[in-house]
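Page 37, continued from 36.
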């Protein structure tokens, strides 16, 4: 290790112990399943997938049928999403909910999300919030007295300009790109060159930050905001509509797939799963251009690109 410039020392090796652990225990039909516990995900994910599948009559359609392969693939998708969300070394994850992950009730909830005639979309929503995206960030806070703060904080790029004034402890931003870059440079691919936001001495650049508090009967009702450049405004809009117009609870409102139109480029960007095939066709028939996002809107799932929507190298 030393010869290869490795990181592991003799002291590390001296401290290492092989540990004896209790196996994962599950049941599958008339069988008891004993397998490897964390820090392997194997036994837990296997038992979970068997739990999901045991109530589905796989044998009826046969091993090679589309129906069987679909159901098994969906169980795999569900099992691996839970693996990513929860599983790791138990010594570092004391709250790992193993017994819940292995329960028949949990499997039943997961099974209920499987549609017999349609593949689900693997969604990063389940792990949203676990990894912060490397960009603009938002905090919503309410205290016991119902005082509320919505705070969006932007340096523009990750780490702003990459510079810290010595001794200050904070990074300098890189917000000049939020000015319109040049007079008259308004294009169909999303550049804006209109006068109100052209750079000028002592002028502050136009932001899309939307820290928002909805108040009802003098009480904070929703406290929200988002990263994502110009998409910020639409993410906040959709979340409000999901709650107020469509009656979703906050978790469902935040998890729901999003979409975005920003005048130019003249098209609707949508997250996978936002629209059914029929809705896509109907929107196209109305004359909308539609494009599926290659990444989530609103910085969820820790996607480093967030959902900044700007021409390459251009201004937000
Ligand atoms: O203030 C603004 O609108 C931009 N500086 C926000 C940039 C942003 O959200 C970058 N990350 N997605």
């Amino acid at each position: 290790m030393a010869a290869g410039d490795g990181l592991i020392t003799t002291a590390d090796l001296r401290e290492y112990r092989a540990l004896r652990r209790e196996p994962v225990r599950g049941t599958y039909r008339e069988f008891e399943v004993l397998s490897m516990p964390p820090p392997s995900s194997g036994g837990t994910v296997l038992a979970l997938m068997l739990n999901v599948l045991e109530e589905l009559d796989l044998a009826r359609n046969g091993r090679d049928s589309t129906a069987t392969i679909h159901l098994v693939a969906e169980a795999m998708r569900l099992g691996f999403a839970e693996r990513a969300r929860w599983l790791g070394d138990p010594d570092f994850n004391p709250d790992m909910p193993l017994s819940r992950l292995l329960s028949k009730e949990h499997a039943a909830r997961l099974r209920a999300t499987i549609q017999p005639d349609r593949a689900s979309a693997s969604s990063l929503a389940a792990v949203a919030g676990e990894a912060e995206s490397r960009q603009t960030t938002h905090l919503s806070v309410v205290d016991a007295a119902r005082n509320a703060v919505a705070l969006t904080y932007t340096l523009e790029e990750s780490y702003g300009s990459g510079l810290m004034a010595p001794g200050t402890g904070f990074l300098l931003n890189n917000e000049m790109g939020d000015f319109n870059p040049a007079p008259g440079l308004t294009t169909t691919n999303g550049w804006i060159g209109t006068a109100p936001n052209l750079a000028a001495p002592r002028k502050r650049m136009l932001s899309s930050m939307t820290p928002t508090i909805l108040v009802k009967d003098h009480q904070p009702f929703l406290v929200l905001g988002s990263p994502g450049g110009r998409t910020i405004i639409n993410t906040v809009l959709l979340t409000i509509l999901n709650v107020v117009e469509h009656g979703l609870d906050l978790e469902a409102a935040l998890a729901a797939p999003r979409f975005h139109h920003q005048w130019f480029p003249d098209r609707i960007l949508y997250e996978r799963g936002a629209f059914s095939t029929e809705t896509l066709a109907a929107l196209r028939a109305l004359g909308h251009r539609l494009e599926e996002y290659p990444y989530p809107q609103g910085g969820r799932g820790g996607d480093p690109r967030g959902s900044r929507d700007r021409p390459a190298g251009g201004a937000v």
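The two ends are 48 Å apart (CA to CA). Flag for discussion at group meeting. Confidence is low (pLDDT under 50) at residues 304-316.
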